[in-house]
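Why predict the complex rather than its parts? Because the way molecules touch one another can change local conformation, and only a joint prediction can capture that. The input here totals 1118 residues.
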Amino acid sequence: MFSPEHDAAIHGEAHQLRSEYVIRIDGVVAARPKETENPNLPTGMIEINVTKLTILNASLPLPFQLDEQVGENTRLQYRYLDLRRPQMQRNIMFRHRVMQSMRRHLDESGFIEVETPMLTRSTPEGARDYLVPSRVNPGQFYALPQSPQLFKQLLMVSGYDRYFQITRCFRDEDLRADRQPEFTQVDLEMSFVEPDDVMNLTEGVVARAFSDALGIEIPHPIPRITYAEAMDKYGLDAPDVRIPLELTDLTEIMKGSSFKVFNQAANLTGRGNEHGLVKALKIPGGASLTRKQIDEFTEFVGIYGAKGLAYIKINGDWSEEKWQSPIVKFLSDDEKRAIAEATGAQTGDIVFFGADKASVVNEALGRLRVKIGKELGIISDTPFAFVWVTDFPLLDWDNEARRNVAVHHPFTAPNPEDIQHLDQADGDSVEHPLEKVRSLAYDLVLNGIEVGGGSIRIHSPELQKKMLGLLDIDDEEAEAKFGFLLSALNYGAPPHGGLALGLDRLVTLMLGLDSIREVIAFPKTQKATCVLTEAPSTVDLPQLRELHIRTTAKPKTAE
Amino acid sequence: MFSPEHDAAIHGEAHQLRSEYVIRIDGVVAARPKETENPNLPTGMIEINVTKLTILNASLPLPFQLDEQVGENTRLQYRYLDLRRPQMQRNIMFRHRVMQSMRRHLDESGFIEVETPMLTRSTPEGARDYLVPSRVNPGQFYALPQSPQLFKQLLMVSGYDRYFQITRCFRDEDLRADRQPEFTQVDLEMSFVEPDDVMNLTEGVVARAFSDALGIEIPHPIPRITYAEAMDKYGLDAPDVRIPLELTDLTEIMKGSSFKVFNQAANLTGRGNEHGLVKALKIPGGASLTRKQIDEFTEFVGIYGAKGLAYIKINGDWSEEKWQSPIVKFLSDDEKRAIAEATGAQTGDIVFFGADKASVVNEALGRLRVKIGKELGIISDTPFAFVWVTDFPLLDWDNEARRNVAVHHPFTAPNPEDIQHLDQADGDSVEHPLEKVRSLAYDLVLNGIEVGGGSIRIHSPELQKKMLGLLDIDDEEAEAKFGFLLSALNYGAPPHGGLALGLDRLVTLMLGLDSIREVIAFPKTQKATCVLTEAPSTVDLPQLRELHIRTTAKPKTAE
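Output of the joint prediction:
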């Protein structure tokens, strides 16, 4: 404290001090006089009688106060001030602790950290690459890595049995709410493993981080469900298992329905997710939902392509005609009985229906399930509900391109039990044996959000070639894109697999935050710009000339 | 072992096995029969009687044997095989241990690891940037960071007192022997520190790495010399202090010499390193050097711009005319006496001379000193000789551009003792007061190679503006390039400073290797290409179109 009694000169100097000044004081620490003690402040019991004051740096008045709510754009523009907020300090330091904890666990588990190139070749994740023009090699471009996938596989071929890296990855995608052009991945790969080994190891890494950084022991082992079960029960491959609601499949029941909407959907055939489904979502106690609420849900499922949202309010027994619904008149008694039995609907419940292509029904009802669970509080109070989703399909049918695409990536191994289907003629048969092939891929999901994913990879050169063939990637393209990996598999590649955790998202969820931008020191906006540094920016023409490129942009040409 | 007595079927199967096959065996471990024991093998005392053999993967015959010496291009093309060599395994695993050790030390010292952006704005290191065209913002470009310099300073402004990061940096420079387009930096920054604090902390980090990874305790504290002393004694700012040879300055002595070469150099005036010097390098016992050796040294100094290499073989007392030299006839007795006294040359020695601009003399003799020290074995057997070089000049005079440039970077703080010179008119005065201003910059040198460097930064906005003015960076340019840092300094920036260690180089030196490519898993060639993945490569036109660029390269246009 600066008191005129102690030192009049310093008391005078202290009048210059303003908020956020950086000062040095020399002085004597003393107990505060009883009446001025403030136990609510960390330093509330003491005072310093200053004998010398040095102003190390002044500060202009801040554009906003540190305890003031301001828009995100302002926060990002003055990120160096925003990062002073106690909340942001906590986030950044927490992230640091998570990283150290994970690295320590991996190091102690015999993993070697190996840095892989940033200036590299297009990787096969299938998202858009960020390109870097080469000055030394005119007309050629590096790509920033979407992941170190191929390099970590090469490291397995090289005999580094356990690799990890906490590394930056890049995807030039249209930014959805919670994506960044660059993001951080906890990347790992192991040799001579099966899915269980990778999942167990990952659980150890995650559990250690929760324990070290949050002081919470997460339940162990983490429950697992198959992709097929997740889609069936939850409609999504990243289910929020805190919500006890489940979908019920009525497709078989509705195949002979005289209700055209259900009948058509139930009998719709098609490859991949183009075939039809009729599913129900029962909400216990939902009969009290208002018309307005139901209208809002109908609008919500429309986002995911649903053409409407049929429902039945279960106001009593169906046989007593107590069901209240615009569609009930189209349903036969058998169908009503089947619905009641299959959904287990009780008086007071509501049942929603989806009838369309599988892709639409699952996503619409799956997301409605989450929305309703959260809004109506039909959710457990577990703060962190993890689940592994396993047995993803190997291939997905791209109806537009009329070809198979890899669900995970082209290097994911098929489940050995299903491998014989790879040789079965697929053609236009209704069986589509290829669709039945499961992969050895697994995703880690936390509170309905995918926080990691991985797979066992193909280590046999013959199988890898077959897989590329199924993806319509011809030899020439394969050789050009990842010939080096195909070569490497020829020289004694061990069986291997791995996983990558999305660090930004995991840390965000651990802190119960909504946006990954809260745990990234200098994030970009949804337009992929940094409002602090004003990146990207125009550059001088000579710089472009050296790189053998020219901009074709009209409005803002480089000067 | 597969023996026909144990199991004839498996013995038969084993005939398929070839080098580098990946197999699984089930069997019984047993002691080898006495006569087949081989204590030179790790597994030389045991054998496994195989009961089941599974071939997990076959291998084609390798393009080279793992214990075979092959050219670097072949090694890089088959890097996944090259990395199997025990030597490369050791290097990569050693690097891992160094990284974990450093991080642990920094974490335990209260440092927070913060990730800074890779897609950012041009940083002011002055090297050429790698650019990344933006798809979302036509005509605009990100730059890959040359270092996280500005972001780490912002973090200090944000109150993260101790920051670190082991991070990738990028410089699009013409690649000298031991440079890579991307390299790894151990980057740190601290608030409320003086040079001593940063140097002490760094010594702790390095000592810990040597101790943990190499089991060697490095002498502590590391000796320090000033830049001025290093240039004076060693001619280089990264002196190899294992070599006991020193340069002797004869400039004053030669100002009145009738030997024109010395006289002109001694009287040459100019700014920066354009002024003249006459220096000597005495090699004890060097009188026995052959004509051929001296010719080779003359050619060597020519690389650094020296027009010749005068020498005197000290075959006895100068006064008895025992000096053997083409130049001795041009020297007066006083000059000879002065040379003998200043260099302390004894019978049997040789003295080499440099007379030219300071830049040429220092570099030529400085490098000759190292070459001769290593070739003639005039070098201590300390494997690791560290030295701090301190008090670098703040500014250097760029004679071509006729302006001052920052020796370290524009954010390096001047030594407070010299700060008054910043206001002195510089103009064309022979005094050049600005050249006297020392900075608070320091470099860490190991065996004559710079492995790290840093400085205390400017935290006062006024001083920063003055500094930019001295560098002829006008307000508009400053605002455009790093206006966000200048703004940040206005809001209570604490005094701060830091350092960055070059991890690739440090690990290379720790292992006694010659090239950083030996400690990088997937390095690039000197043409900045990756021969393994064939990056960079041409890309499809639509990809460029999306990025609003066009290549101007003639021979190899993208298809």
